[in-house]
Design goal:
This protein has 288 residues and is mainly α. It has a single domain, classed as MetI-like (MetI-like fold, Orthogonal Bundle). Helix content is 74%, strand content 3%. It is built from 14 helices and 2 strands; from the N terminus they run αββααααααααααααα. The protein has a two-stranded antiparallel sheet. A hairpin with a 4-residue loop joins strand 1 and strand 2. The longest helix has 32 residues. It is globular, with a radius of gyration of 24 Å. The two termini are 28 Å apart. The mean pLDDT is 82.
Length: 288
Amino acid sequence: MATQSSRSAARFMLAPAVILLLGWMLVPLSMTLYFSFKRFLPLRGGDQGWVGFENYVRFVTSSAFWPSVLTTLIIVGGVLIITIGLGIWLAMLLDQPMWGQGIVRILVIAPFFVMPTVSALVWKNMFMDPVNGLFAHIWKFFGAAPVEWLSQASLPSLIIIVSWQWLPFATLILLTAIQSLDSSQLEASEMDGAPFHARFIYIILPHLGRAITIVLLIQTIFLLGIFAEIFVTTGGAFGTRTLTYLIYQRVLESQNVGLGSAGGIYAVILANIIAIFLMRIVGKNLDA
């Protein structure tokens, strides 16, 4: 058992890292909160004094606020459905013995290590380009008119791009969970004549419950801040402006730091509400 002196020594050694981490989070958050109560226009006079909650009222009553929140939730929900659904299927497939299993697993996980801007540009120029993209050539081969994906189907296109990036992460977590499943349960159910869908619903899926909730929590936290994919593909046009992109427009394009900071506080509040809700789900599953 650890003694009082060892615990004190551990706290002392951890203190610099904890202080640095708190400073890394609290300083930007404090500055955002500070500027959200001010009228600050860098290129139009700079600091013009305190305005109280005016920025918050202007931001939330803007015609673009609620559509951006809805767009954010649609993208997050769509990506979660695709990555978890396909992740379970891929994890079960990769768990089967096959030739070159290690190479196949590496190829499946590889997209997760590609930077968001790079993967978005690849999808935009190599696959979804209406003239020279791969999808356009496939459409032409079957005699159909090419689809302008990023304008005619902008939200589905973004969901596909982001899902491609996060599918390896979900697959890796779910594959680890499947490999920890007691094979004797599956063998016993198979000997009893249970069909595959019954084994999946009553044995495999309940066992994956914890892994699914972890994937749900981690991906949601990161997906709420999606920006790079939108910036390099649609630029926020065609109904793809998320809350994060709206904040970017208010700060950099409109040069209104105070208004953008108020939007940043709203984004923090939204992320915390969703995180608390998901943490309750995760906690229940982990305690089960």
